[in-house]
Amino acid sequence: MHIPLALTYDDVLIVPRRSSFSSRDEATTKTRLSRHINLNVPIVSANMDSVTGSDMAIAMARLGGIGILHRFNSIEENVEEVKRVKRAQNLIVSDPYTVDPTSTVSQAKEFASETGVSGLLVANGDNKLRGVLSRRDFLFATDMNQRVEEIMTPREKLIVGNAYTTFEEAKKIFAEFKVEKLPLVDDENHIVGLITSDDIKHIINYPLSNRDSEGRLIVGACVGVHGDYLERAQELVKAGVDVLVIDIAHGHSDLMFNAVAKLREVVPEVDLIAGNIATARAAEELCEAGVDAVKVGVGPGSICITRIVTGCGMPQLTAVMEAANVAKRYGVPVIADGGIKKSGDMVKALGAGADSIMLGSMLAGTEESPGVIMNKGDKKFKISRGSASFTQANDRRKINQEKKKNMSEVVPEGVESIVPFKGDVGSIIHQMVGGLKSGMSYTNSHTIAELQKNVEFVRISGAGLQESGVHDVTAIT
Ligand code: XMP
Q1: Which of 237, 430, 453, 472 is most buried (most C-beta within 10 Å)?
Q2: If one looks up domain 9-88+209-468 in CATH, what number appears?
Q3: Band (403; pLDDT cuts 50, 70, 90)
Q4: Cα–Cα distance for residue pair 58/55, rounded to 1 Å
Q5: Range from 249-263, 344-358, 441-455, 460-474 carrying the lowest mean pLDDT
Q6: In whole angstroms, what is the distance from residue 278 CA to residue 8 CA?
Q7: Which residues form the CBS domain (predicted)?
Q8: How far is CA 366 from the centre of its chain?
Q9: Taking residues 423-452, what's their average pLDDT?
């Protein structure tokens, strides 16, 4: 039997080429996540419950990537997470939250915190604008039993726009009148929309943010292939999700093909990403089945023990190369999922043919990941756990109310771990993008497509790998 060699990121280096770059900023990191979704930065946060909730998804989309919300919750909770991302940033809020003038300040405050907004428009049941309850009104309110109409800024004192107010006009109004919210009304004073100064600030502060046609941040969510997956997919799409990831451990399976066909019927309007796979054959069959991207990686993840438990998998560089070779022929983007430890691994993954990469544990220790910060001695940590870990299986049992499931029958293919707390995700993405652009300049590649054309890998030895890292000194950072 011939046994071919398969390689991963640490087995290779990219050979530098003559470069015409004078600055690494000449490189653009624009890419495609799937057939119809573009990204400014080729980084996707993993659909793990220790990585991507709505906070992470909001941050990732603002930074130019995208977050894929995990599915280890009820459909209602999952839908709320999508709505939170979609509400986080708009050009125009077409259906702003309102509060009744006769509500108490305490009721309005609770509603504002539930919906995650800083201020509220005040309207009667007829949706006519009566006033605005701003962040400042909340801040200086002393009596929580007062009625909203007693402390709001009333309609006659408000600056308003109309359905035709442009972004530029709104910017001028915010600058001149120092207001935070610009309600948009029709001739009869009905509320038709809202522009907020926060939205304008976000658009200026996050020039790379990925937004949908309404100016809202883009977000993905994932579904499985069993149980409530069709209903979940439909509800997520109704809530505005931009892309669905069908995520199962072994994506080259009849279960996957069946799910792709059914999802295409019930949610034809969204891109479907299918994974995880590790071979050219799997990529080919999924492309033939009409998916909009494939996710590659069987066992490379930091918390994965699939290869140990099952003996199956494929070193990630080879898996990405093989899948990408085929997917390119179909015009289907590839996501390299798992095993990325440093920005150099990302450059190798993209050079090998991936269009984007998915990060799990690298992002699990950030402020935006779900879960609490733990202290151990003077160090801070967060949890990163595999989606097929024991505790995850136990939590899933509770969510699905599978009372009868015997936990001693569970065979985990992932572990629970702690990762150092790393602060905000923006600084990690900044380092990753800086490393990528630098790698692109070493190969004289102005685009990711050029990187894929220019890349030349060499295999390295154990000594070469050792030489690549810090050695013979004691690093102090
Ligand atoms: P990194 O290395 O970025 O990998 O932490 C994240 C990816 O790992 C996969 N994943 C798992 N794989 N058992 C596995 O074999 C698991 O329990 C598990 N949980 C996550 C997943 O593809 C993720 O994006």
Answers
A1: 237
A2: 3.20.20.70
A3: low
A4: 5
A5: 460-474
A6: 12
A7: 92-150, 152-213
A8: 14
A9: 98
Side chain identity at 467, as an amino acid letter?
A: E
Preceding peptide of 73 cis, ω within 30°: no
Contact of 121 with 96, CB cutoff 8 Å: yes
Give yes or no: 397 in active site.
yes
Pairing label, strands 66-69, 43-45: parallel
CATH of domain 98-205: 3.10.580.10
Q: What is the pLDDT of residue 406?
A: 75
CA dist 20 to 242, 257, 348, 443, Å?
38, 46, 21, 10
Task: State the CB neighbour count (10 A cutoff) for residue 185.
Answer: 21
- 297 CA from centroid of ligand 1 (Å): 8
Alpha-carbon radius of gyration of the chain: 25
The protein residue with its alpha carbon nearest to ligand 1, atom 19, reads 386
CA distance readout (Å), 189 to 203, 232, 285, 462 = 28, 38, 56, 72
Whether residue 304 lies in the annotated active site: yes
Cβ pair 221, 71 in contact under 8 A: yes
Grouping H, G, I as helix, E, B as strand and the rest as coil, residue 28 is coil
Binding site listing for IMP: 302, 337-339, 360-361, 413
Residue bearing tokens 């590790």: 278
Report the C-alpha gap between 150 and 344 in whole angstroms.
59
Ligand 1 centre from 46 Cα, in Å?
A: 8
Cα 396 to ligand 1 centre (Å): 17
Q: Which residues line ligand 1 (CB under 6 A)?
A: 46, 48, 276, 297, 299, 301-304, 306, 337-340, 358-362, 386-389, 413-414
pLDDT tens string 233-290:
999 999 999 999 999 999 999 999 999 999 999 999 999 999 999 999 999 999 999 9
What are the residue ranges spanned by the domains of the chain? 9-88+209-468, 98-205
**Ramachandran angles phi, psi of 244, nearest 5°:** -115, 140
Q: Which residue has the higher pLDDT, 138 or 439?
A: 439
CA of 152 to the centre of ligand 1 (A): 49
Which residue among 10, 43, 48, 51 has the greatest number of ligand 1 atoms within 8 angstroms of its CB, and so is best to mutate?
Answer: 48
Whether the per-residue pLDDT at 453 is higher than 70: the answer is yes
Residue 188, classed as helix, strand or coil, is: coil
- Going by pLDDT thresholds of 50, 70 and 90, the confidence category of residue 166 is confident
Q: Which residue from 189, 192, 195, 196 is spatially nearest to 129, judged by alpha carbons?
A: 189
